[in-house]
Write a sequence for this structure.
C-alpha cells in the first residue's frame, strides 16, 4: 500500500481501477485507502480516477476532489521516478537542511514541488521523517537516509540526475 | 550454544546502513561456520551509535557502533565480543542507557519485535491477562490511579477520558490510536511501532476491555513507511496467535485493530481532524463539544489516545497504578519518553521520570551540540513549542512547570540549536509552517499565518520594524484567542518566545550570529 517506487511506468487502467475501488469500498472510511491504492498503482490521481471513485463509493465528485486537494500526498500530475522528500522541519534546520535544500535546487535545476523535465526526479519538502537525532533526513522513494548531504542524495537518485 | 546477534531494523538504524550490516553479518556467520542467529531488533535509542550491532555473551550484550558493513568482517575476526575499535562494551552499562528509567520502552531494542514468544518472555501480555479478570470499572480505576496523562501533548488524564467513554451508552465504541507523530524532534511512536509493536496492540486491547469497545484503528503517518509495514505485520501475527479477533486470548472477548495511513497533513495529529481523516474526509477540525469521548469516530463514543499513552497501559495493568504513579513529580506522574534531536552529539530516546531538567537532559545525556559550538536555544514540544534561552534550561520536565514558564512539553521532543541559528528566521518559519499545514477551518489560522510570515519579513527587511513587531504581537493574540484548535492557538508560542528572548535577531537585516 505504501510502495512509492515510481521506477515502474504507470498507466491508467479503468478496469483495474474499478476493481481496486470496488474491493475496498466496504472499508470504514474507504476514501483515503482507495486514494492511496490509486496513487500506488497509477502514480497520480487523474480526473478519470476522481469520477470513477465518486461513482463506486457513492460520493460526489466534489467530495473526492476536496479530499484529494487537502492532503499533500496525493498528486494530480505525475511525479518523478525518484521522489526526493527532504525534511525541512526544525530538527533538520538545526543541522543545516535549509542550506542543503538550496544546494539541491541548484544541483537538480528545479524548485521544491517541481519535477525534472525528463520526469526523473521530483523534489518535495516534508515536515519530519522521525529521524531527528540523525538530521538532516531525506526519504527517496521509500529509502530513508540520515546525516544526509548533497553527495549522498545525488548518489541515491543516481542515473536520473539531469 | 547458539550465539544471538542483533542488528536493528529501526528506520533510524536503516538510515545509517543497518540492512547492509545485517547482510554482512549473515555472510560472516556462514563464512565462519558459527552457530549464530541474526535478530532484527528495534533501536535502543542511542542514535549516534546506529547501526548498533550487539552480540550476546555470558556477561551480557556487547555492542559495536556505529558499524558499517565493511567493519563486520574485522569484528568477527577479532572474536565476537572481544576488543575492537568500535566495541562500546556492555550495552546496558552505557551511561546514556543505564541512567534511564524505562517502563514504556522496557523491551524496545532488546526483543525481536515480531516474536510474540519473546514479547511474553519479557513481561508482555501480563497486563492484558490481569485486565481480562477485571471489570471495566476496575481497569479504568487502575489507569486513573496511575496518573497517566496524554503523551501527545495536551496532558489530559487518560483514565478520565476512558471513564467518559465507558459511561456513554452505545452499541459500537472505538479505540483510536493517534500515531500521526508530526512534531519535528519526536520519534517515540515510530520506535514503538518498529521496536515493540505488541505493546501498542496490548494497550489497545486493554483500552477496549476498559470501555467495552471491540474495534480499534491506528492512524499512522505516511512519512513512516517502515513503521507502517512493521505494525501491519505485528497485527497479522497477533490475529494468527489469537491476541486479536473474536476471542482475545481465548476469553471470548472481541477486539480487532485496523491500520489507516495518513496522507501528509500535520493537522491530522489533532484528534478531531484525525477522526475526520479516518472517516475518509478532509482533515478539518471539528468544533468541541461534543467531545470525541461522547461522539467521536462515525459519531460513536471514542477513545482517542496518543500511541505512547496506549503503550504505557500494559505495564500499568501489570505492575499496578500505584507502581507507575510512584514515578514523577507534582501532577506529572510516571515516566516521559523524551527525545534529543537536532544539533546534538548524543541524540536519541531518554525515558525518565518527570522532573529531570532540560539542562540535565541536554548535557548529561546529550553531551552538548553535534557541531561543538555553544547552544543558543532549545525548542521543546515541537513546532508549537517555545524557543528557550539558556536561563530557562533549569526548568524541570513537567507539564505544569513548563506552562508556568510559557512553554509546553508536548510530545517530549527537544530540538537543540547552536549559535548559528537566527531566531527571526525561526519565528518566520513558525508562521510559514502554520500556513502550509492550516486546515483552513478558522480564519485566524488560515489567514493570520500568512500575514504573520509577511509581517516578519518586513521586520527582517527593516521596514517599519517597531510598528510591524507590534502588529506581530497583536496578530499572535488574535491567533491565540481566536483559533479553533492548538495549531493556530499555539503558533504564537514559538513566535513570541523568539521575540521575547532573542530580540537582537529581529533588528533590521540581522546577521544573527552566523558562523559562515
Amino acid at each position: 500500500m505504501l510502495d512509492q517506487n515510481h521506477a515502474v511506468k504507470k498507466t491508467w487502467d479503468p478496469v483495474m481501477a474499478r476493481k481496486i475501488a470496488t474491493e475496498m469500498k466496504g472499508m470504514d472510511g474507504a476514501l483515503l485507502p482507495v486514494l492511496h491504492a490509486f496513487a500506488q498503482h497509477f502514480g497520480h490521481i487523474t480526473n478519470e480516477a476522481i469520477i470513477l471513485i465518486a461513482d463506486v463509493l457513492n460520493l460526489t465528485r466534489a467530495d473526492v476532489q476536496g479530499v484529494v486537494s487537502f492532503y499533500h500526498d496525493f498528486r494530480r500530475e505525475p511525479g518523478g521516478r525518484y521522489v526526493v522528500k527532504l525534511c525541512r522541519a526544525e530538527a533538520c534546520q538545526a543541522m543545516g537542511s535549509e542550506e542543503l535544500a538550496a544546494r539541491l535546487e541548484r544541483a537538480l535545476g528545479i524548485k521544491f514541488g517541481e519535477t525534472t523535465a525528463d520526469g526523473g526526479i521530483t523534489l518535495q519538502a516534508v515536515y519530519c521523517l522521525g529521524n531527528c537525532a540523525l538530521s538532516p533526513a531525506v526519504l527517496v522513494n521509500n529509502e530513508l537516509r540520515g546525516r544526509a548531504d548533497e553527495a549522498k542524495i545525488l548518489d541515491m537518485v543516481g542515473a536520473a540526475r539531469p | 550454544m547458539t550465539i544471538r546477534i542483533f542488528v536493528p531494523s529501526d528506520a533510524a538504524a536503516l538510515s545509517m546502513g543497518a540492512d547492509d550490516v545485517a547482510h554482512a553479518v549473515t555472510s560472516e556467520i556462514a563464512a565462519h561456520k558459527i552457530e549464530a542467529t541474526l535478530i532484527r531488533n528495534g533501536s535502543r535509542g542511542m542514535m549516534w551509535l546506529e547501526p548498533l550491532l550487539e552480540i550476546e555473551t555470558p556477561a551480557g550484550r556487547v555492542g559495536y557502533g556505529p558499524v558499517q558493513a565493511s567493519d563486520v568482517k574485522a569484528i568477527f575476526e577479532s572474536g565476537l565480543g572481544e576488543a575492537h575499535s568500535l566495541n562500546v562494551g556492555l550495552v546496558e552499562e552505557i551511561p546514556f542507557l543505564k541512567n534511564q528509567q524505562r517502563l514504556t520502552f522496557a523491551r524496545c531494542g532488546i526483543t525481536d519485535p515480531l516474536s510474540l514468544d519473546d514479547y511474553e518472555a519479557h513481561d508482555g501480555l501480563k497486563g492484558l491477562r490481569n485486565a481480562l479478570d477485571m471489570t471495566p470499572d476496575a481497569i479504568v480505576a487502575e489507569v486513573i490511579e496511575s496518573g497517566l496523562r496524554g503523551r501527545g501533548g495536551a496532558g489530559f488524564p487518560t483514565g478520565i477520558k476512558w471513564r467518559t467513554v465507558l459511561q456513554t451508552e452505545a452499541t459500537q465504541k472505538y479505540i483510536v490510536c493517534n500515531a500521526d507523530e508530526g512534531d519535528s524532534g519526536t520519534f517515540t511512536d515510530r520506535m514503538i511501532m518498529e521496536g515493540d509493536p505488541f505493546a501498542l496492540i496490548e494497550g489497545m486491547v486493554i483500552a477496549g476491555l476498559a470501555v467495552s469497545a471491540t474495534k480499534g484503528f491506528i492512524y499512522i503517518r505516511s512519512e513512516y513507511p517502515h513503521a507502517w509495514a512493521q505494525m501491519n505485520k505485528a497485527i497479522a501475527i497477533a490475529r494468527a496467535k489469537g491476541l486479536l479477533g473474536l476471542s482475545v486470548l481465548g476469553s471470548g472477548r472481541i477486539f480487532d485493530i485496523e491500520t489507516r495511513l495518513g496522507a501528509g497533513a500535520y493537522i491530522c495529529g489533532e484528534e478531531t481532524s484525525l477522526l475526520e481523516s479516518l472517516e475518509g474526509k478532509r482533515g478539518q477540525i471539528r468544533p468541541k463539544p461534543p467531545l470525541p469521548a461522547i461522539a467521536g469516530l462515525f459519531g460513536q463514543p471514542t477513545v482517542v489516545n496518543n500511541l505512547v499513552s496506549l503503550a504505557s497501559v500494559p505495564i500499568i495493568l501489570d505492575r499496578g497504578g500505584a507502581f507507575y504513579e510512584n514515578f514523577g513529580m507534582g501532577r506529572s506522574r510516571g515516566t516521559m519518553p523524551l527525545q534529543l534531536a537536532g544539533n546534538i552529539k548524543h541524540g536519541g530516546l531518554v525515558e525518565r521520570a518527570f522532573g529531570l531538567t532540560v539542562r540535565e537532559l541536554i548535557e548529561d545525556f546529550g553531551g552538548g551540540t553535534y557541531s561543538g559550538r555553544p547552544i543558543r536555544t532549545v525548542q521543546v514540544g515541537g513546532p508549537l513549542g517555545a524557543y528557550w534561552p539558556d536561563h530557562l534550561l533549569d526548568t524541570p520536565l513537567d507539564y505544569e512547570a513548563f506552562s508556568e514558564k510559557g512553554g509546553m512539553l508536548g510530545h517530549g521532543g527537544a530540538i537543540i540549536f547552536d549559535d548559528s541559528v537566527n531566531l527571526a528566521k525561526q519565528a518566520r518559519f513558525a508562521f510559514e509552517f502554520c500556513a502550509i499545514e492550516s486546515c483552513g477551518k478558522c480564519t485566524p489560522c488560515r489567514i493570520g499565518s500568512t500575514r504573520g510570515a509577511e509581517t516578519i519579513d518586513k521586520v527582517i527587511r527593516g521596514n517599519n520594524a517597531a510598528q510591524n513587531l507590534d502588529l506581530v504581537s497583536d496578530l499572535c493574540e488574535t491567533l491565540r484567542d481566536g483559533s479553533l484548535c492548538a495549531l493556530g492557538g499555539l503558533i504564537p508560542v514559538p513566535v513570541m518566545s523568539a521575540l521575547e528572548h532573542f530580540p537582537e535577531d529581529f533588528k533590521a537585516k540581522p546577521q544573527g550570529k552566523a558562523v559562515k
In short: The longest helix of chain A spans residues 31-42. The beta strands of chain A are 82-87, 121-126, 138-140, 143-145. The radius of gyration of chain A is 17 Å. Residues 51 and 61 of chain A are 6 Å apart (CA to CA).
